[in-house]
Write a structure and sequence with these properties.
elongated, 3 helices, 19% helix, 5-stranded mixed beta barrel, 5-stranded antiparallel beta sheet, SH3 type barrels, 227 residues, Type Iii Antifreeze Protein Isoform Hplc 12, alpha+beta
C-alpha cells in the first residue's frame, strides 16, 4: 500500500512539473514585444500619441522570453540593454535600438514660395522622431491648402514657419473697406499697406481721406475696420 502511495505521489509530482514547464513555455513571447512594452513605459508622456516603436535587436540575440528582469534605455538615442528570463529559467542579456517613428506629411516634390500645397503634393512617411524636429508639421490637413513661405524640399519634414494660410490680400492692391456702425454698413475704397491672410490684421489707406486705418482681412479684396 505504501509503495502504491509513493508511486502515485511521484506521478503527481512529474505531472505538476510537466504542467509548470508547459505553462512557462506557453507564456513566452517575442523579445522585441517585451522590449517594446518596456520602452513605452520608459518614455511615458514624452511619446507622441501616434508614434510607433521599431525594435531593432543586435544580431545573435534570443528571439523569445518570459519577461524582462532588468531594463536600461537611453531616451535620446533609443539604445537599450535588457536582462530577459528565458523558457529554460536562464537569464540572457540582449541589446539593440528602440527607434521611435512618427508618420508625418512631407512634400513629394520641391515646392516654391507662394505656391499652394495640394493634396497630391504630400505623402505620409514614417520617420525617426529625432529627424522630425520639434516644430515640424505632423498632420496632413495642417499642410494641405497652405501657402509656401520658404522653399519646401521633397522628402523632408516641413517646419511650421515655412508655410502660412493663403494670402487673400496683397500689399499695394486696391481693397473695399467696410465699416459697421450702429446697424449701418459703410464702404469706401482703399489700398492695402500689408499682405494679409483671412482673419489677419493689416493697415490700409482710405483713398478718399488719405487716412491709414487698422483693419482685418475678411475676404479676397475686402477688409473690415477694427473699432
Amino acid at each position: 500500500m505504501m509503495r502504491i502511495r509513493a508511486a502515485l505521489v511521484m506521478v503527481l509530482q512529474l505531472v505538476a512539473v510537466g504542467f509548470f514547464a508547459s505553462s512557462v513555455a506557453a507564456q513566452s513571447v517575442s523579445v522585441p514585444e517585451l522590449i517594446e512594452e518596456r520602452a513605452i513605459a520608459e518614455l511615458g508622456a514624452t511619446l507622441p500619441a501616434d508614434a510607433q516603436i521599431d525594435i531593432r535587436m543586435a544580431k545573435g540575440m534570443i528571439e523569445r522570453g518570459n519577461f524582462i528582469q532588468e531594463f536600461w534605455m537611453d531616451a535620446d538615442t533609443g539604445q537599450f540593454i535588457a536582462n530577459v528570463a528565458t523558457e529554460d529559467n536562464l537569464t540572457q542579456r540582449v541589446w539593440g535600438i528602440a527607434m521611435v517613428t512618427l508618420s508625418v506629411p512631407v512634400p513629394t516634390r520641391r515646392i516654391a514660395p507662394d505656391e499652394i500645397v495640394r493634396s497630391e503634393d504630400v505623402a505620409l512617411v514614417a520617420m525617426p522622431l529625432q529627424r522630425i524636429g520639434t516644430y515640424a508639421i505632423e498632420n496632413f490637413q495642417d499642410l494641405v491648402g497652405q501657402q509656401v513661405r520658404r522653399m519646401l524640399v521633397a522628402g523632408r519634414p516641413v517646419p511650421r514657419n515655412s508655410v502660412m494660410p493663403p494670402r487673400i490680400i496683397n500689399r499695394g492692391e486696391k481693397v473695399k473697406i467696410r465699416l459697421n456702425h450702429g446697424g449701418l454698413q459703410l464702404t469706401a475704397k482703399g489700398r492695402a499697406l500689408d499682405d494679409a491672410s483671412k482673419g489677419q490684421e493689416l493697415r490700409v489707406v482710405n483713398l478718399s481721406s488719405n487716412k491709414a486705418l487698422s483693419t482685418i482681412a475678411t475676404a479676397a479684396g475686402v477688409v473690415e475696420v477694427i473699432q
